[in-house]
């Protein structure tokens, strides 16, 4: 993205529920990671348009045994990122456990282990505020009706200044059931500006909702409200839930998501200003922009979170996440390039959605092709490895060792309602136990699988429409597995993973 303008989305993949903070000349962003590990991604930018992934704040999900298996819609929901007392702070809600917090002296850590600030079911989307005028600290959060029976309201608390605990039982400070037409109020972000307490919070649901602003002279209310960003006559559905940030020169900007089906929640950048009446004005008079003048910041070279990987020394890049807490031995480090994954034995080998040992990255939001070279080194009958597009429904292409010792190229899929996969294409021999695998992701996340077993790329099966999880976009995945049994089942090696625009 060069020149005088930028085009939305600025992060064209599933960086769900973004929040942003500026420290000096640097901007940092985090996002929901749900049940994937490591969690709490950390992105960096100098211009709010070009972003790179610099790490994660959460090495493992706790309690560890709970997240030893995939929990795709649990874990880390809607974090808030703040900088206070020379430290970075991230608060998030685990809908089944409560409000957690981690902090670090620098964005790359070391980050503390998760600290449970408040235990409880359905406590989600927390955001802290340290009031520099009074020295008081506060926290606001929303509610998940699936766990608590409560929704559409925001609860406020006083908080210990060290961020370790809340000082009261909380008070409902915004009850959107009392606001005509409002529903599913959630995702609050708390600020102080111009003598007011401000809560920027979305409502109306992820696909069709709007961005609200609330203000009060006192933290506990009463608050008045206004809709400050909505779809209007644009093609940006449900523009909401994000964070406000101010540049060193005083420009105001708002980063939010847009729900795009299998692509997940992509991130848009909206201009923002404070109107003559003191309320924020986002986008083009409350409508999201597609192309706009770039922020008044020093020009930066084009950048985006990494996708390609040569797996040097057997290590995988920051863009990859496991579908649950990993165990030792799943990925082996070595002296060369290539990702060596153990064929982990599992009674759930028939359903990738139930496996913790799938290494994933986000599905690109624009038409692309993903390719990887695979060698199946396992001699175990039934051992298999491949490249998958994962969601409530999934499909994969890869290699499997037969009972007679031969290796076949196989292509399989499972519908959302199915409890096991079945063939999507006819198996064929894979001489030498090698194949180059490819998935072409077209408009609408329609995926065509291909493989080269030595005679050029040949398509396999029908086009597969990628599907999201409940709250998560579809994922690209690499895996190796074997049926349940005893002993080591060998490994598979992946090399030269590439994602290219179509």
Automatic annotation (TrEMBL):
PANTHER family: BETA-XYLOSIDASE, BETA-XYLOSIDASE-RELATED. Residues 309-499 form the Beta-xylosidase C-terminal Concanavalin A-like domain. GO terms for molecular function: hydrolase activity. Belongs to the glycosyl hydrolase 43 family. It comes from Streptomyces glaucus. Keywords: Glycosidase, Hydrolase. This is Glycoside hydrolase 43 family protein. InterPro entries: ConA-like_dom_sf, GH43_C2, Glyco_hydro_43, Glyco_hydro_beta-prop_sf, Glycosyl_Hydrlase_43. It comes from the Bacteria. Pfam families: GH43_C2 (PF17851), Glyco_hydro_43 (PF04616).
């Amino acid at each position: 993205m060069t020149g005088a303008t930028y085009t939305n989305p600025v992060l064209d993949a599933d960086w769900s529920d973004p929040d942003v903070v500026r420290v000096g000349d640097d901007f940092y962003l985090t996002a929901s990671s749900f049940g994937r590990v490591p969690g709490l991604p950390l992105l960096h930018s100098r211009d709010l348009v070009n972003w790179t992934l610099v790490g994660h704040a959460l090495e493992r999900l706790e309690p560890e045994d709970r997240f030893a298996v995939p929990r795709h819609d649990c874990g880390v929901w809607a974090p808030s990122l703040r900088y206070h007392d020379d430290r970075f702070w991230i608060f998030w809600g685990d809908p089944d456990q409560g409000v957690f917090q981690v902090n670090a002296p620098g964005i790359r850590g070391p980050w503390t282990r998760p600290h449970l600030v408040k235990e409880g079911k359905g406590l989600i989307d927390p955001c802290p505020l340290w009031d520099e005028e009074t020295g008081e600290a506060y926290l606001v959060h929303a509610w998940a009706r699936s766990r608590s029976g409560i929704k559409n309201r925001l609860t406020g608390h006083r908080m210990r200044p060290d961020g370790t605990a809340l000082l009261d039982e909380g008070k409902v400070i915004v009850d959107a059931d009392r606001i005509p037409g409002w529903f599913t109020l959630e995702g609050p972000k708390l600020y102080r500006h111009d003598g007011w307490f401000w809560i920027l919070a979305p409502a109306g649901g992820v696909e069709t909702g709007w961005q609200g602003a609330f203000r009060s002279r006192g933290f506990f209310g009463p608050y008045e409200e206004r809709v400050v960003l909505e779809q209007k006559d644009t093609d940006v559905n449900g523009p909401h839930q994000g964070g406000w940030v101010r540049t060193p020169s005083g420009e105001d900007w708002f980063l939010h998501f847009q729900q795009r089906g299998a692509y997940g929640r992509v991130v848009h950048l909206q201009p923002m200003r404070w109107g003559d009446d003191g309320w924020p004005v986002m986008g083009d008079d409350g409508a999201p922009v597609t192309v706009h003048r770039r922020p008044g910041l020093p020009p930066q070279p084009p950048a985006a979170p990494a996708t390609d990987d040569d797996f040097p020394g057997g290590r995988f890049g920051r863009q990859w996440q496991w579908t649950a807490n990993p165990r030792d031995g799943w990925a082996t480090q070595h002296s060369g390039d290539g990702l060596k994954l153990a064929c982990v034995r599992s009674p759930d080998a028939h359903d990738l959605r139930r496996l913790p040992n799938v290494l994933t990255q986000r599905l690109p939001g624009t038409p692309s092709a993903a390719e990887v070279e695979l060698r199946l080194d396992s001699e175990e009958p039934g051992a298999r490895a491949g490249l998958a597009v994962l969601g409530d429904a999934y499909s994969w292409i890869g290699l499997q060792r037969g009972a007679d010792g031969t290796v076949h190229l196989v292509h399989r899929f499972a519908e959302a309602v199915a409890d096991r996969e079945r063939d999507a294409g006819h198996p064929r021999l894979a001489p030498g136990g090698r194949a180059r695998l490819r998935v072409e992701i077209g408009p609408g996340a329609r995926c065509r699988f291909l493989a080269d077993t030595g005679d050029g790329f040949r398509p396999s099966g029908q086009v597969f429409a990628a599907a999201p999880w409940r709250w998560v976009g579809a994922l690209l995945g690499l895996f190796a597995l074997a049926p349940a049994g005893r002993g080591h089942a060998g490994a598979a090696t992946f090399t030269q993973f590439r994602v290219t625009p179509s």
